[in-house]
Design brief:
binds flavin-adenine dinucleotide, 11 helices, 8-stranded parallel beta barrel
């Protein structure tokens, strides 16, 4: 397990807020904004949800006090969406209020397709009441075309990703080529109609297309990538004058996040096995 944690640290800042703050400082030193996520998901009891809310309030205060350029990104199922959407909304409000008071944006991650309707419901209410609440949309989901156009109409900040959850063909595109095609179509829409969106991908072809679109559209946007992935590309984009954000997760419940990262890039499994063998 110790070796596994060592390998996971490529993507996870550590188990404590202190370690996350160090990673956020390191990102800022490279000209990159930090986006902190406290790991944990699928809570069906109020205890862990309410502890998670306290942790996020602590993060926002630490970022502000330490003068770090950064925001937080929350997962709906860690804030109680599986208990009830009204409950999740009530739990998220204090975090939005704290983020807003600190001058930041609250980002909401998107999880499995079954949670999307309630997540949109919570986001809509938060955005109407507070503004400055961003939402992740997944290009693999068939419904995203409609969701994107509704969110653009409202002017909400959007983070576009390919989608990290295994879904069935009735709700999702499942082939790589189809997902990429959808992503690129949404990217065009965002550059045409959006502002303050995040191009969240490590895919060189997607980054290149965004750079091309940025030449024709003066809309403000940023690139977003995960901690531990494509650091030279991040540096390159910063050097070209683009805004870059790094998503930095931390906390003791790192295993599901770690598993998703291994799954999306088989080469990671080979690298991990090699590093485990060589100690
Ligand atoms: C900031 C951020 C936030 C996210 N939030 C969510 C969320 O809320 N919900 C959700 O479902 N998903 C989220 N994701 C994950 C996302 O859905 C994808 O699973 C993940 O980003 C992998 O897709 P990709 O676009 O990077 O491309 P992939 O298809 O994984 O990779 C495409 C290509 O990128 C290149 N590449 C990728 N990794 C590397 C590497 N380490 N070194 C060199 N080249 C590499 C390779 O050329 C690869 O073939 C988030 C991702 C980011 C970056």
């Amino acid at each position: 397990m110790g070796l596994l944690i060592r390998f996971a640290r490529q993507w996870v800042a550590g188990e404590t807020l202190d370690e996350a703050v160090l990673a956020a400082r390191a990102a800022n030193a490279r000209g990159i904004r930090a986006l902190l996520n406290y790991l944990g998901e699928h809570y069906r009891e109020r205890g862990p949800v309410e502890a998670t809310v306290r942790e996020y309030l602590g993060i926002v205060a630490r970022l502000r006090d330490a003068g770090i350029h950064g925001d937080v990104s929350v997962k709906p199922t860690q804030l109680g969406i599986l208990i009830g959407r009204e409950y999740a909304l009530a739990q998220t409000i204090p975090i939005v209020e704290a983020a807003r008071a600190a001058g930041g944006v609250l980002w909401v991650d998107m999880e499995a397709a079954s949670t999307v309707p309630d997540t949109l419901w919570v986001h809509e209410r938060l955005f109407e009441a507070y503004g400055r609440v961003g939402l992740c949309l997944q290009a693999n989901l068939r419904r995203t075309r409609d969701d994107l156009s509704r969110l653009l109409d409202r002017g909400a900040p959007i983070r576009l990703v390919k989608g990290a959850y295994r879904e069935t063909p009735d709700v999702a595109f499942t082939g790589r080529a189809e997902i990429d095609r959808e992503y690129l179509a949404h990217l065009e829409t965002l550059f045409r109609e959006g502002r303050d969106f995040e191009v969240a991908s490590h895919d060189g072809r997607i980054v290149a297309r965004a750079l091309e679109l940025a030449k024709d559209h003066a809309t403000p946007f940023e690139f977003a990538m995960l901690k531990g992935v494509r650091d030279p590309l991040k540096a390159d984009l910063v050097a070209q004058g683009h805004r870059v954000t790094e998503y930095i997760p931390y906390g003791p419940s790192w295993l599901p996040y770690f598993t998703r990262r291994l799954r999306e890039r088989p080469r990671n499994v080979v690298t991990m096995l090699r590093s485990l063998v060589s100690g």
